[in-house]
Amino acid sequence: MRRNRFNKVSAFAEICLKATRSHDIKSSLTVTLRDAGVTSWYVGPLVHESDLPVGLGQFGLAPGWQEQYAEARHCEVDPVFLHAKRREGPSTWGACRERAIREGASRRALQVFDEAEEFDLLDGFIMPTLGTHPLVDGVTFGGLDPDLSTDGLLDMQMIGTYAYEGFRRLAEGFNRVSPYLTPRELEVLRWSAEGKTAWEIGEILHIGVRTVRTHQTSIKEKYGVSTIVQAAVRAALDGTVAAPF
Amino acid sequence: MVHVVAGATNPNCREMLAKMFRQRCDVFIKEKGWKLKSYNGLEFDDYDTAETIYLMQFDARDNIIASMRMNPTDGPYMLADIFSSVCEAPIPRGRDVWELTRGALSRNLRKSGTWGRMQCAMLESALLWGATKATGFFTVDHIMKQMRVGLDVKPLGSPLLVDGEANVAAEFPFNTQTLERLRSSYGISGPAIEHIHLMPVPQKKVAA
To answer: Which 3 state secondary structure label does DSSP give A104?
Structure first.
C-alpha cells in the first residue's frame, strides 16, 4: 500500500521534471489523481482565466464547470481560492466552506460550493504555491469522493508541488534545450535570421550556395522545424542568436 | 559571503563553530521547539564530526546569520540511521553523496536572499569536494522552494506528517548546470564562497 503510494508520486515527479510539453504533465496528472477520486483539477494563478499569463494556469476541470466558473467570476469570491491567497497551507474544500460560514461569507461565495456540487464536485484539496509575482498561485483538486485521508492529503500536496513546478518550468522555458550548432551553422543561422538569401550568405561566408543549404537543412533538423525562419525564431527565443526584435 | 569550515573540531575555527552551535540551539530548540540536546546553549550531536563540512555566513559585526551542515554518507548519517523507515527507494550512500541537515537562518533574514547565497555556496563546495548528489529529509514546502530555484528534487519515499508539516526523504544532483540555475535564480554572478577553512593536517613529530 505504502509502496504503491510512493511509486505513484515518484513516477509523477519524474514526468514533471522531464516534461517538455504541458500535455505530458496534464495527462499524467489526470491519471494519477483519478486513483485518488479526483475528477477536476486546476494548477496556476488564482485569477480569472482572462487574466492568466501565457502558459500559466492549467485546467483539468469537469466539462462545463470551467465555463460556468469563469462566467460567474467565482474566482473573486471562492472561499477555496481565498484560503490559498491567505497562504495558510494545504486544506480541504470542506474546511474552507466551514470557515466561510463561520466568518459570515456572502451568499455568492457559498454559492460556489452549491454550483460545484452540480458537477459532482463535493469536496477537494487546496494548497497555495510560491506564486509567480505579482500573482498568488495555487493548486486545487476536487471530486465526488476524493481521498482526503491524512495520507491522501500528503500525496496530493506532493503531486500538487510537482505539477505546479512542472507547469511553471515549461511556461518559463526551463527545460527547453538548445541544440548544439557548429560554428559554421551558427554563422549561417545568424545571417538567415538577418533575412539574407542562401546566395547572399554564400557570398558573405565565401562558401557555395549548396553548402549554405546543407547547413540550413542540418539546422532545421536540429530544431525539428521545417523552415529556416522557424529555426531562426526558435534560436532567438532560446538565446542562441540575438533576437532581431 | 560564505565561509566553508571543514570539521566540527577544526582548531582554527573554534569561535566560528561555537557561534554556529549557539545559533542552532536558538533556531531549532528555542524557536522551532525541536527535541534536541543542548550543552551550555550549544546544539550539536553525533553527526557533527571531523568529516562534516559546514557553511556559515556572518554579518558585518561578525554575528552568524546562516549555517548549514553537510555530511558525506559513507559513514553514519541521519537519513540512514534515524529516518530509514521513510525511504522506499534505495537509501543513497557514498562519499560523493552529501546529507544536508540543520539549515539555519536568522529569523529576520528569511526573505532577504541570504539563503540563496548559502545554496550557491553549497553547490560550489559540493563541486570542489567532488560530491555529486544531495540527500535529506525535507519539508514539502522546502522541496517546492528548491525546485523553484532549479534543483531537480526527487522523492525517496512517501511524505510523512511531522509536527503538522509534510516531510519527505529526497535527493537532488549537484552539477555545474544546477549551480548556474541557482546563481541565475538568485541573481548571483560570482562565487558565493569567501573562504575555505580546511582541517589542518597533523604535523609529524621529527625525532631529535
So the answer is: coil
Place of cell 511524505: B159
Chain B CA closest to residue A161: B144
What does each C-alpha distance from B135 to B94, B96, B117, B157 come to in angstroms? 11, 11, 19, 12
What integer pLDDT is reported at residue A220 of this predicted model? 84
Q: Residue A127's beta-bridge partner residues?
A: A139
| Residue that the C-alpha cell 542562441 belongs to | A240
Question: Nearest Cβ partner of B148 from A3, A130, A151?
Answer: A130
Please state, in angstroms and rounded to a whole number, the distance separating the CA atoms of residues A180 and A178. Answer: 6
B158 touching A (Cβ < 8 Å): yes
Residue B68: the pLDDT is: 97
Mean pLDDT of B78-102: 94
d(CA B147, CA B8): 30
Domains of chain A listed by start with CATH number: 2-171 (3.30.450.80), 183-237 (1.10.10.10)
- Contacts B182 to A, Cβ<8 Å: none
pLDDT greater than 60 at residue B178:
yes
pLDDT tens digits along A101-126 = 999 999 999 999 999 999 999 999 99
Residue of A nearest to B169 (CA): A6
Class in CATH terms, B2-197: alpha beta
Spatial distance between the Cα atoms of A125 and A143, rounded to a whole number of angstroms: 9
What are the respective helix, strand and coil percentages of chain B, to the nearest 5?
30, 25, 40
Amino acid at A112: V
Residue for cell digits 475528477?
A39
| Sign of the Cα pseudo-torsion (B14, B61, B65, B54, in order) | negative
Write out chain A residues lying below 8 Å of B169, CB-based.
none
How far apart, in whole angstroms, are the C-alpha atoms of residue A216 and residue B197? 53
CA-angle at B184, arms to B183 and B190, nearest 5°: 40
Of B88, B144, B155, the CB nearest to A3: B88
Rounded Cα distance between A21 and B51, Å, is 43
Q: What is the distance between the alpha carbons of residues A189 and A181, in angstroms, rounded to a whole number?
A: 9
Type and span of the H or E element at B160: strand B160-162
Percent of chain A with pLDDT over 70: 91
Q: Counting Cβ atoms within 10 Å, is residue A224 exposed (0-12), middle (13-18) or buried (19+)?
A: exposed
SS3 assignment, position B25: helix
Look at residues A23, A12, A8, A42 and name the one whose alpha carbon lies nearest to residue A119: A42
Give me the residue spans of the domains in chain B. Answer: 2-197
